[in-house]
């Protein structure tokens, strides 16, 4: 039997950092996220936190073209610069991880940093080894593991980027996850970027058995996002719902919403009563 997780909580990089400015926090939303997790932990919710890199990591990754890997033919100064870029990118992501862990610790949450880049392995950007045994042991003893998008060794490319959304999919395949909650900088999913005129909020999205969905959604991506933007997040959500055959719904809500703790801690959320988007199986 798979170990149980009540909620996997994804804190979006855009929600707690200013992606347009390198290594710049949004202190208010970050504190809101930490407080939300505290409330859930204090109420007995077993949770794992995963956060995006936001402005911690994406700028370095773009500058050093990290997602192109480490070409075998690269040598001399170019190779040294690429390796330095890898180190700087990982250090930047771990800075944000430590900030979030510290915020949780200050609230009395027994958070433990867990960086996938230390042991997870990719092959041509696809995850081939994602050992989660340590996550299970931490949960067993009452800790709150805090994972993140990271840089990992890649058997083909030398190294490449592992997105936080892929981390979530791995957790959902390794544990009995009751729900996944994305805390973002907007209140849920819209049929187009919410900055566009006439964007319509979608309180619910249903996933069919073949993986298609009942809503038409137009997406966009930040120029500083090197991991796929909102499209990858949506596809991750749809895959989780499909692979769990509807047992694990996905919710998207604003990080600073008073409804966020309710969405995380309540098994059967009615999206008509809380302001969020619920992604579930079409029945």
Automatic annotation (TrEMBL):
Which species expresses this protein natively? Plakobranchus ocellatus
Organism superkingdom: Eukaryota
Q: Any idea which positions bind substrate?
A: 53, 58
Q: Name one GO cellular component term.
A: cytosol
Per the record's keyword annotation, is Endoplasmic reticulum included, yes or no?
no
Q: Name one GO biological process term.
A: terpenoid biosynthetic process
What are the entry keywords? ATP-binding, Isoprene biosynthesis, Kinase, Nucleotide-binding, Transferase
Domain (Aspartate/glutamate/uridylate kinase) spans 8-252
Feature type site, description Transition state stabilizer = 19
Name of this chain's protein: Isopentenyl phosphate kinase
Q: Which reaction does it catalyse?
A: isopentenyl phosphate + ATP = isopentenyl diphosphate + ADP
Give the Enzyme Commission number: 2.7.4.26
Q: Which residues bind ATP?
A: 10-14, 54, 164, 185, 229, 233
Keyword hit for Nucleotide-binding: yes
Listed GO molecular functions?
ATP binding; isopentenyl phosphate kinase activity; kinase activity
Of which family is this protein a member? Belongs to the isopentenyl phosphate kinase family.
Matching entries from Gene3D superfamilies are given as: Acetylglutamate kinase-like
């Amino acid at each position: 039997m798979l170990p149980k997780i009540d909620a996997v909580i994804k804190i979006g990089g855009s929600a707690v950092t200013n992606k347009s400015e390198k290594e710049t926090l949004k202190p208010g939303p970050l504190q809101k996220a930490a407080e939300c997790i505290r409330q859930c932990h204090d109420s007995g919710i077993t949770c794992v936190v995963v956060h995006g890199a936001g402005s911690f990591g994406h700028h370095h990754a773009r500058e050093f073209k990290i997602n192109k890997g480490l070409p075998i033919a690269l040598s001399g100064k170019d190779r040294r610069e690429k390796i330095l870029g890898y180190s700087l990118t990982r250090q930047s992501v771990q800075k944000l991880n430590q900030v979030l862990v510290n915020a949780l610790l200050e609230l009395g949450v027994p958070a433990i940093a867990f960086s996938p880049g230390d042991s997870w392995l990719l092959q041509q950007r696809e995850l081939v080894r994602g050992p989660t045994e340590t996550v299970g042991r931490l949960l067993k003893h009452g800790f709150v593991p805090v994972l993140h998008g990271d840089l990992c060794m890649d058997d083909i490319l030398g190294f490449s980027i592992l997105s936080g959304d892929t981390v979530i999919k791995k957790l959902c395949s390794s544990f009995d996850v009751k729900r996944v909650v994305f805390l973002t900088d907007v209140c849920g999913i819209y049929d187009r970027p919410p900055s566009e005129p006439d964007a319509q909020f979608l309180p619910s999205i249903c996933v069919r058995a073949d993986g298609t969905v009942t809503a038409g959604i137009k997406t966009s991506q930040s120029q500083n996002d090197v991991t796929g933007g909102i499209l990858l997040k949506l596809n991750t959500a749809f895959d989780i719902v499909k692979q769990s055959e509807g047992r694990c719904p996905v919710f998207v809500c604003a990080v600073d919403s008073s409804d966020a703790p309710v969405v995380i801690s309540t098994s059967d959320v009615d999206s008509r009563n809380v302001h969020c988007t619920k992604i579930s199986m079409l029945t």
